Fold this sequence. Notes:
By secondary structure, the chain is of the alpha+beta class. It has one domain (10-246). It is built from seven helices and 13 strands. A three-stranded antiparallel β-sheet has the order 1-9-8, covered by helices on one side. A hairpin with a 5-residue loop joins β12 (174-182) and β13. The longest helix has 29 residues, at 142-170. The termini are far apart.
Amino acid sequence: MIHPDLHLRPVALDREQHRLLRLRRDAVDLSRFAALNSMFVLAGEFGEACKDYPLVWVEAGTDPAGARQVAPVAVFGLARGENLCISGGAWRTRYVPLALRCYPFAMARAGEQFALCYDSAAPWFSVTEGEALFATDGAPGPLLAEVRRQLEAAEAEVERTRLSGLELLRLDLLRPMRFEGTMPGGEPLVVDGFLTLDEERFAKLTDADVLALHKTGLLALLVAHGLSLSNMHRLTDWRAQARAATQPAAAG
């Protein structure tokens, strides 16, 4: 999928037009992700991602028929433009969402087909340095072949993730989330704009509905979501650490 906050200038790869294009892997750095306070995650990522990030949902517009849609995201920061999960040029978390691991590549739907794209805004491409994307015969090189394999496998999960969101909406199981805390200096902290499980509504589901959620795997996603919310406190701690590091030391 193309993420507007990540893929600034996506271009479909063409074996003729881009046959000389190379990726300088040694030049890739994480500064491109420093202003991302969240990123889309697939349903299949919940099991691992819940150990490192709060997993919540956000509004995702409407489908072609006008139906409301939501998408799950991993939260990296407590404010827009803040990523507390990167420090010193490295991830502080063990798991990194697939969309970021595959960047600067992504899949884009073109009718019934998918096109492999690259972000032409990423500064790591060259025609003289780095690993070639295409072989001399125009076939995808090893790097591009592996990226395509990962992204094609992910597309099936994109659809499952979308359907999971529709089912949560059908059952009216999502409500606006509001996280309130206090920073060490006493400053109040409020985080909203996300959607979380409405536990009151969930408790009123029929046994048949709960069994259906279990059989489709959606119940496991909700369990992972619930477990993940404790990571909001870790983000609060990381913000406090970051602020303390920028404050001048007290005079002795």
